[in-house]
Amino acid sequence: MTEALGLDSVTVRYGERVALHAVSLRVPPGEVLALAGPNGSGKSTLLRAAAGLEPTADGTVRLGGEGLSSLPFRWRARHVGWMPQEEPPGDNLRAVDYVLYGRFPYVPPLATESRADRDAVDRALAHAGATELRDRRVWELSGGERQRVRLARVLAQEAPLLLLDEPTAHLDIGHQLDVLERVRSVARDAKVAVVLALHDLNLAARFADRIVVLHRGRIVADGRPPEVLSSRLLLEVWGIASELRYDERTRLPYLIPRSVSAPAPLPPPTAGGRPRVHVMAGGGSGAQLLRHLVERGFAVTAGALPLFDSDTEVAEELRVPSALEVPFAPISSATREQVRAFLAEADAVVVAPFPVGPSNLANLEELRTFPRPAGIVFVRHPVGRRWDFTDGGATTIRAELLARGATEAETADDVERRLGRPVSA
Q: Rounded to two decimals, what is the model's pTM?
């Protein structure tokens, strides 16, 4: 097989809006191709079209050289492993039984799984680093553990093509690196073609053989990481000035953002008296909160957020003024000053359930000087999911602020109710 996936002039429309404009690309076996681009650029649409989950208005999708439209469903399921961004775990199954779902295309109707299916599940769990999780219930798994089990379920299909939509979303840096290392290993060892959407260009450069950058539904760059990553690209597509550097050990390129557009002035309070709210988030933990608060008429700021983060892209989409920082780098003094300026104007602060490490602990440290502790609302972390990677520093600050009057909430609606009450110093 010379081609695991082929797209020829594929166009996808949502009503009058064109989401993909005549996109063409080829993905050979064993290649890891990263799709990058701003929020709404067409990454998820392209993956869904390639999986046959999104109808195309024009063009052709091929799997293994065969036209997608002519292939029966069970054949597709054996040839394409699909992992969406979000996927409710459903029933509280053992992880091994959840992974067994990936063998559905191979089990005849009214039959049960075979020894070969069980062996495939064992191999998938091993490849995903999830063997020790096989007897745990999926509802009891942490975010990183559940992501490994989801990956194992896709690997159990033993498909020659994997389509992964933001497989590192909501994961801390350690789990992001682990998942991408495992995906790279599967592609190399089993000659599986992998197409995955990533927000972070630097991660894409580290793990992908090739990067395709989408902007407004069109391909604007396609090539090996050294050919694609450039300061000009980041400025033209993301509007960010940057410096291109090379890792001394691997010689792989990476971008250091140097400046971003100055944040827009904080919008005035609404006529209804909604308070000004600053949101601390990251890793996708604040996307729903940001949308909820903006839709409800709050004047919202955000940060410090890492560039390329999914929360950052939602903030940009909603035109929420944000303090931004280089991904995985310590929050700089300039960014901390911007956070302080937002806090000085805020009536309340909402802290999303983001993982806290040494690089972003400064966000919580700045809250110690917030003059209205009763105006701080912490959204609770999912039960059983580790979030403090600072040897207890983040937990200490959180407990200190709760003792001084900060409160906790479960949902965005709960947050809104707490913000609606009077806040005193």
A: 0.67
Kindly write down the DSSP assignment for every residue of 167-180, as one continuous string: TTTT--HHHHHHHH
The DSSP letter of residue 135 is T
* Chain centroid to CA 104: 27
Q: In the β-sheet with 322-325, what is the strand arrangement from edge to edge?
A: 322-325, 299-306, 276-280, 348-351, 376-379, 407-409
CA distance 298 to 209: 43
Residue carrying structure tokens 């729903």: 288
- 381 three-state secondary structure: coil
How far is residue 22 from each of residues 56, 61, 270, measured CA to CA in Å? 10, 12, 43
Write out the DSSP string of 87-128.
----S--BHHHHHHGGGGGGSPTT----HHHHHHHHHHHHHT
- Find the angle CA(375)-CA(379)-CA(383) to the nearest 5 degrees: 150
CATH numbers and ranges of domains, the chain: 5-229 (3.40.50.300), 276-419 (3.40.50.450)
Does residue 304 have a cis peptide bond before it, meaning omega lies within 30 degrees of 0?
yes
The residue with tokens 């109707």 is 109
Residues 209 and 177: beta-carbon distance below 8 Å: no
In angstroms, what CA-CA distances link 9 with 2, 23, 58, 62, 313?
19, 5, 7, 12, 27
Compute CA 296 distance to the chain's CA centroid, rounded to the nearest angstrom: 25
Q: Could you write out the DSSP letters of every residue in 234-263?
A: IIIII--EEEEEE-TTT--EEEEEEE-PPP
Give tens-digit pLDDT for 189-223: 889 999 999 888 888 888 999 999 999 899 999 99
